[in-house]
């Protein structure tokens, strides 16, 4: 599981590095970062599979619900308290947005688990992601994100 965590973090780090390289006009370096980030994903997924970290969809949803709950009830509240104490305004905003998004993610996973428990699949409505705060919604594109108030221009559909 440490290998899974390390490879997962490398993937995210390299994607951030790719975005920075692009902003600096280094498109080919960005491509290398993205390719190697994808390789790290391959490693991470294999490590997770071998470690027994992928179960049935029903079990995976139960695990996802617990993970999200931990994030919005324990992890982020602690981080938010530290950011407030240290007067880290940018960190505080990022953490508060993430905490609110994690609550939504938890509700979505709970709804999905109820559907799986009833032997149903999720609806085929559009899934919407706010690229600023991580809010996820379903259905019609809102004019503004309900968490960070960003416009629909920063949202993507799945």
Describe the structure.
- With 158 residues, this protein is mainly alpha-helical.
- 66% of the residues lie in helices and 6% in strands.
- A 3-stranded antiparallel β-sheet has the order 2-1-3.
- Helix 1 (2-23) packs antiparallel against helix 2.
- The longest helix has 29 residues, at 57-85.
- It starts with a helix and ends with a strand.
In short:
With 158 residues, the chain is mostly helical. It has helices at 2-23, 27-50, 57-85, 89-117, and strands spanning 127-130, 136-138, 155-157.
How would the blueprint of this fold be written?
Blueprint: H1 2-23, H2 27-50, H3 57-85, H4 89-117, E1 127-130, E2 136-138, E3 155-157
Antiparallel strand pairs: 1-2, 1-3
Whole-number tally of structural domains: 3
pLDDT averaged over residues: 97
Distance between the termini: 29 Å
Given the helix and strand composition, which structural class is it? Answer: mainly alpha
Percent of residues in helical segments? Answer: 55-70%
Q: Which strands sit side by side, in order, in the main sheet?
A: 2-1-3
Q: What are the secondary-structure elements, in order, as H or E?
A: HHHHEEE
Radius of gyration: 18 Å
Largest sheet: 3 strands, antiparallel
Poorly predicted tracts of residues: none
State the shape: globular
Number of helices: 4
Quick one: how many beta strands?
A: 3
Strand content: 5-15%
Features:
158 residues; mainly alpha; Rubrerythrin, domain 2; 3 domains
């Amino acid at each position: 599981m440490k290998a899974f965590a390390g490879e997962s973090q490398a993937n995210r780090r390299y994607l951030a590095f790719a975005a920075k390289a692009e902003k600096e006009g280094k498109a080919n370096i960005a491509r290398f970062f993205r390719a190697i980030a994808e390789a790290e994903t391959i490693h991470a997924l294999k490590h997770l599979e071998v470690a027994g970290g992928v179960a049935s969809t029903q079990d995976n949803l139960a695990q996802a619900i617990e993970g999200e709950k931990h994030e919005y009830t324990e992890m982020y509240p602690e981080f938010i308290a530290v950011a407030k104490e240290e007067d880290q305004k940018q960190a505080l905003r990022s953490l508060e947005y993430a905490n609110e998004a994690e609550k939504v993610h938890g509700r979505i996973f709970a709804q999905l688990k109820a559907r799986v428990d009833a032997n149903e699949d999720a609806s085929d409505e559009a899934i919407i992601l706010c690229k600023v705060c991580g809010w996820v919604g379903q259905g019609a594109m809102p004019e503004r994100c309900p968490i960070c108030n960003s416009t629909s221009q920063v949202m993507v559909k799945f």
